[in-house]
Design goal:
By secondary structure, the protein is of the alpha/beta class. It contains 22 helices and 17 strands. Helix 12 links the parallel strand 11 and strand 12. The relative contact order is 0.11.
Length: about 625
């Protein structure tokens, strides 16, 4: 990309639009050999667009404000220049001990992810580079000891950094680089006062990186506080913003959300790993308990769980240990409606500095001004607890190889929808997004499964379709053949009847107690005894409802005559098969031969048990 020059042949700070990636490699970026060796080990062969554009500018000492989609490699785009700068500085001043770089992130999960990236890229640097994550739940004395040795890189949320600065445990006098990752979220997550205080504590004239998936008013605020004439990179890649994602919308009744979810996962209509987004914490446990009735295992991810458990769930999911995550998108809901404040744990878990309450106000963007009809009218600021403030699942976290995102509860804005579906179709791969839509006339008809924001589903869907069409993408209707699915309805009703409100509350409390034990008391034990790590599984049954073993198996007589394909109206507009559509004729022939001579005729079909008995209970 050719940068614009002004009349004095000086690079301009105007927005740099990039649509194609330069033919650069990590070799051409003049990085330290130790860093290049780590890149080879991590199988980084070629820089992504944001890395190719940002790293050369960063190595020149420029301030950078970069907008690039989630999963585009923004973390490496600032970590690599920071490591290079530290190594160069230590080569010139070997005896210098000081914190050189501060990386601010909105959530603990993202802090852990950034630390792992920094550690892996500096694996061949020996003791020359040390990174510390301040969001780890350790005592103040331990944290003070971690900072006493002057780590080169400090990774933290704004509140935790400010607490350590105020206690004199952390000094920023020798700071040379500041990063604010997911910059558009930091202020929205309730860190406004902390950021304002940090702007006075950070030395003037240091290099600043603002990394974001969107350019909003919050980013402009941070830019004015920390940057000095930054180079703005507004990067657009081929297939950006959901280009590799097939998007579908399913119109259904409120209870049919549960019915279709049961059918999709029990009959394996979706292949691979899936993230299911629900509106709140109670909703996540209700769906988990419902799926447990059918023997479908899943993990719950929400702001109430300990940070170590949340991080462990994501890591194991990425390794392929779990296939289904039910994620409560707390932040998105808190911005539009008053949420229930989580009850205090009986286990006596103490909240840390980040657990102080902070005011939360939905970020003001263009969409917020254009979509007043889809939001609950409220001018009051919402309260956001510390546990909710440091949690976020639809942004920043690096989920790997996600095949499908299921919007069980539709988000309240098209912007949130874009971030959610960004969990799949990453790194050039394809993915699928499936969203359940409640028609206006169906809202409120099934009280036990009703959810308040579903009232505006159709209006939000119209905004989503409009936004995606501007990006060149289409949200297609997906039609299930509900007459064929009706044979599963009585099982869905039976399972839902068992998942009462009391059962959900008991499951929620029990899960928190279990995860607190796994997170704190047993963590070191399992580190020393890795063969017992299976005890740390997060997808075990909560067993807060009565067990109905017969629901775990699908009898043949419930299946349509055409099998799984019979569940979908093939003539519907925009139909694209979710599962595999091709059949193995050799396997089919073997199955026919195996069934020859069995009861049911030469065709090999099994007899329908409902048709082999008369009204008196005798065989026909």
């Amino acid at each position: 990309m050719k940068r614009k020059l002004d009349e004095n042949d000086v690079p301009s700070t105007e927005v740099a639009e990039a649509v194609s990636q330069n033919e650069s490699t990590f070799e051409t970026l003049n990085l330290d050999p130790r860093i290049r060796q780590a890149l080879v080990k991590e199988k980084f062969s070629k820089p992504t667009l944001v890395q190719a554009q940002a790293i050369p500018l960063a190595l020149e000492g420029k301030d950078i404000l970069a907008r690039a989609k989630t999963g585009s490699g923004k973390t490496a785009a600032y970590v690599l220049p920071i490591l290079q700068s530290i190594l160069r500085r230590k080569a010139n001043e070997p005896s210098l001990k000081a914190t050189s770089a501060l990386i601010l992130v909105p959530t603990r999960e993202l802090a852990d992810q950034v630390q792992r990236v920094a550690t892996s890229f500096s694996s061949f640097c020996g003791k020359d580079i040390r990174a510390v994550n301040l969001t780890q739940k350790v005592s103040d004395a331990v944290q003070r000891a971690m900072l006493a040795d002057f780590p080169d890189i400090v990774i933290s949320t704004p509140a935790r950094v400010l607490a350590n600065i105020n206690s004199s445990a952390l000094s920023l006098n020798e700071l040379t680089q500041l990063v604010i990752d997911e910059a558009d979220l930091v202020l929205s997550y309730g860190y406004e006062d902390d950021i304002n205080a940090l702007s006075k504590a950070v030395p003037r004239g240091i290099q600043t990186f603002l990394m974001s998936a969107t350019l909003t008013a919050e980013v402009d605020t941070l830019k004015s506080l920390f940057c000095r004439n930054p180079v703005i990179l507004k990067l657009t890649e081929a297939g950006d913003e959901g280009g590799g994602i097939s998007q579908f919308a399913v119109r259904c009744a409120e209870d049919e959300k549960f019915l279709l979810t049961y059918v999709i996962f029990k009959l394996e209509l979706v292949k691979g790993k899936c993230i299911i987004f629900v509106g709140d914490i109670d909703r996540s446990y209700r769906l988990k308990l419902f799926l447990e009735q059918f023997g479908i295992k899943s993990c719950v991810l929400n702001s109430e769980l300990p940070a170590n458990s949340r991080i462990h769930v994501v890591q194991e999911f990425n390794k392929g240990v779990y296939d289904i995550i039910i994620a409560a998108d707390d932040q998105e809901v808190l911005g539009t409606k008053k949420s229930k404040k989580p009850s205090a744990s009986k286990d006596g878990a103490s909240n840390d500095v980040d657990d102080a309450e902070a005011e939360f106000e939905e970020s003001s963007d263009d969409e917020a001004a254009q979509e007043p009809s889809t939001k609950t009218p409220s001018n009051k600021k919402q309260k956001l607890t510390g546990k909710q403030k440091d949690y976020g699942i639809s942004r920043g976290i690096d989920f790997q190889n996600v095949a499908c995102v299921l919007n069980f509860d539709l988000p309240t804005t098209s912007k949130s929808y874009t971030h959610r579906i960004g969990r799949t179709g990453r790194a050039g791969k394809t993915g699928m997004a499936l969203s359940f839509i409640i028609p206006k006339e169906e809202f409120g008809k099934h009280k036990p499964t009703s959810y308040p924001t579903a009232k505006h589903d159709e209006a939000v869907l119209a905004k989503i379709i409009k936004r995606q069409s501007k990006l060149g993408h289409e949200v297609k209707p997906y039609h299930f053949e509900m007459k064929k699915v009706d044979s599963f309805r009585y099982r869905m009703t039976d399972a839902l009847r068992a998942v009462t409100r009391l059962a959900v509350q008991e499951a929620r409390a029990r899960e928190i107690r279990q995860e607190l034990i796994k997170s704190e008391k047993l963590r070191r034990h399992f580190e020393e005894n890795p063969e017992e790590l299976r005890q740390l599984r997060h997808d075990g049954e909560i067993r807060a409802v009565r067990v109905q073993p017969h629901l775990k198996h699908v009898p043949d007589y419930l299946m349509p005559s055409k099998g799984k394909k019979g569940l979908v109206a093939t003539g519907s507009e925009g139909y694209v098969g979710i599962g595999k559509t091709s059949e193995n004729r050799i396997r089919k022939a073997r199955e026919r031969n195996r069934n020859k001579g069995r009861r049911g005729g030469a065709g090999g079909r099994k007899a329908d048990p409902l048709k082999t008995f008369n009204a008196k209970g005798r065989k026909k």
